[in-house]
């Protein structure tokens, strides 16, 4: 069982920045696909960004250019740097871990609110 713990969500003004963190309970970053999804009220959970075990990165078009996903394999942690935040970026952000065998784990989420 893999546990993922997100942190860093906060209330931020439009145009501001936030850095989210996700710590995993095991040394999986070099093997699994790690990512960040987000879900606003009444909407589906959508991919924001993900990074493969080889370091290949994929960003959703809606956030491309404003967010950066990174990882620290020694600390079993991934990060999401978000800049130029907009009110429509407000959502619960979930950390995701996909194993090579098809297992998919989620964190409990961290709330990001972009509002003046």
Biggest sheet character: 7 strands, mixed
Determine Rg (CA atoms, Å).
13 Å
Structural class: mainly beta
Q: Note the beta-strand portion.
A: over 45%
Contiguous low-pLDDT stretches (5 residues minimum) are none
Percent in helix: under 10%
* CA-CA gap between termini: 40 Å
Q: Give the SSE string.
A: EEEEEEEEEEE
Total beta strands: 11
User: Count the helices. How many?
Assistant: 0
Overall pLDDT: 94
User: Any idea what the shape is?
Assistant: globular
Task: Write a brief structural summary.
With 116 residues, the protein is mainly β. It has no helices and 11 strands. It has strands at residues 4-7, 11-12, 18-24, 33-39, 46-51, 57-59, 67-72, 77-82, 91-98, 104-106, 110-114.
């Amino acid at each position: 069982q893999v546990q993922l713990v997100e942190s860093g969500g906060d209330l931020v003004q439009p145009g501001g920045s936030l850095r989210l963190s996700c710590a995993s309970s095991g040394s999986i970053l070099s093997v699994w696909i790690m990512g960040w999804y987000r879900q606003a009220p009444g909407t589906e959970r959508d991919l924001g960004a993900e990074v493969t075990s080889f370091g290949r990165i994929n960003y959703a078009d809606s956030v491309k250019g404003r967010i950066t996903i990174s990882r620290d394999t020694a600390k079993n942690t991934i990060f999401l740097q978000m800049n130029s935040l907009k009110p429509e970026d407000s959502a619960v952000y979930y950390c995701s871990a996909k194993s090579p065998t098809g297992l998919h784990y989620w964190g409990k989420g961290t709330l990001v609110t972009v509002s003046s």
